[in-house]
Specification:
23 strands; alpha+beta; 418 residues; OB fold (Dihydrolipoamide Acetyltransferase, E2P); Elongation Factor Tu (Ef-tu), domain 3; 4 helices
Length: 418
């Protein structure tokens, strides 16, 4: 086969020009087709609008709320008396019921009285003898003194009579003291309770010989007033001081807190107490300060060494910020809330939380008056997302309740609480 090469003005040159034009036209059609497709695709993407997230929100406001601190505590008798025998001898019998409440002056034990009754009788006889001798000496002195004044007797006779009278007087006083001692020893054979309180078990059994080595017989614990002791850590104390200095916490006047006692069943003890003692020294072993509360316990409901809770009432958080508990969330960096800005955009805000107050949470730092906080609908939010806001209704919250303060578990060392 042969190919003919023609000149520039030949038929073959015209064919090549026509072919190039056809190729360029085809390429233009393809480019136009793809270009239109891309523009339509971009237009379609841009035309899809992201719907606003529907949330409920509240406007932040401030108000004064009570602050209640709660501690684990242990009761202690305000007066624990060891009942000891004051004489040596045989323990005759126990006359009280172990574990019962006894009155002041009630008999607890009886010692064998017979030897002490003998000693008492001897002391009485000795006193009578000395009193008789004193009377003789007094009469003799009465006779000698006028005779000595008339020089009928010598001065020595007068001095002897006077000395005899003074000696007899001293002997009488000594006999009286011995009689009192015998009476005391005899009275000590009846062991009574010096206070009204609850008794413990008898340490010594009937018939035991009691000496200085085994003189303790039992104990009696006073039930009213009752002491309730709890400890405050150094960190807790410092947090309270810091919040007081910043104006975030206002203590009662004179720091006179009213103290409630919560029993093991959760009920509130009917009588309230007051702080009567604070240990001035820091305990290096426990890292705490001891606080003592005194509380009336007329019916003996509280018993020594019982574990209870105490609540300190009287402090106030002025201008506190509260938000529903459901509005506060926790992430890897701590607690945070979602806010709605003026453009209805969601913004994340870290916060420092305090104690609960009813179904709300006290916010110590991070929020201000006028902020709009998201309560419901925040699970799907992201920063900058458009939101549709509706008012939050607390009544619609099945978990909502009255605004009752919730005690701060003050033993906690975290950010929550004080």
């Amino acid at each position: 086969m042969r190919y003919e090469v023609l000149g520039e003005n030949g038929a073959s040159g015209g064919y090549r020009k026509t072919a190039r034009w056809v190729v360029r036209a085809a390429l233009a059609v393809v480019v136009a087709a793809f270009g239109c497709g891309c523009e339509k695709k971009d237009t379609a993407v841009k035309s899809v609008a992201v719907p606003a997230v529907e949330v409920s929100a509240v406007d932040v406001s401030t108000r004064d709320v009570p602050f209640i601190a709660e501690f684990i505590a242990q009761t202690q008798s305000s007066r624990l008396v060891n009942i000891n025998a004051r004489i040596t001898g045989f323990l005759e019998k126990r006359v009280y019921t172990e574990g019962s409440i006894v009155k002041e002056g009630q008999t607890l034990f009886m010692m064998d009285q017979k030897p002490f009754k003998v000693q008492l009788d001897q002391a009485k006889a000795a006193l009578a003898r000395q009193e008789a001798a004193l009377e003789v000496a007094r009469q003799n002195l009465a006779r000698v003194k006028p005779l000595a004044g008339l020089n009928a007797l010598s001065q020595k006779d007068l001095d002897d009579a006077t000395g005899k009278f003074q000696t007899s007087s001293a002997d009488v006083e000594q006999a009286k003291a011995q009689l009192e001692q015998a009476k005391l020893n005899y009275s000590y054979t009846i062991v009574t309770s010096p206070v009204t309180g609850i008794t413990s078990a008898a340490i010594q059994t009937d018939g035991t010989y009691i000496s200085q080595m085994n003189s303790q017989l039992t104990t009696v614990a006073v039930l009213s007033p009752m002491w309730v002791n709890f400890s405050v850590s150094e960190n807790q104390m410092q947090r309270v001081l810091d919040q007081v200095q910043k104006g975030m916490l206002r203590e009662p006047k004179g720091q006179n807190y009213v103290v409630e006692v919560i029993l093991v069943d959760g009920s509130v003890f009917p009588h309230k107490g007051a702080i009567t003692f604070a240990e001035p020294s820091f305990n290096p072993q426990t890292g705490t300060f001891l606080i003592r509360v005194s509380i009336d316990n007329p019916k003996g409901v509280l018993r020594p060494n019982q574990y209870v809770k105490v609540r300190l009432l009287g402090a106030v958080r002025p201008d506190a910020i509260l938000v529903p508990q459901r509005a506060v969330r926790q992430g890897a960096k701590g607690h945070f809330v979602w806010l709605v800005d003026k453009e209805n955009k969601a913004q994340q805000r870290p916060v420092t939380v305090g104690e609960w107050y009813g179904k709300d949470w006290v916010i110590l730092e991070g929020l201000g008056r006028g902020d709009k906080v998201v309560v419901d609908g925040g699970l799907t939010l992201r920063a900058g997302a458009t939101v549709s806001v509706k008012p939050y209704k607390a009544d619609a919250d099945p978990a909502a309740g009255g605004a009752q303060p919730v005690a701060v578990p003050a033993r906690s060392e975290g950010k929550q609480g004080s």
